[in-house]
Amino acid sequence: MMTKSRSKQLVICVNNEGYAVSLEKRKLYEVLRDPVAEKNGLLRVVDESGEDYLYPKTLFRSIALPLAVKRAVLAA
Amino acid sequence: MQFEILGEITEVETFASGSGIREIARLRRIYGRGRWRKRKGIAQVRLSNGSTHLAEIHWYEAAGIGRKEFKIKNLL
Question: How far is A55 from chain B, CA to nearest CA, in Å?
Answer without folding.
Answer: 7
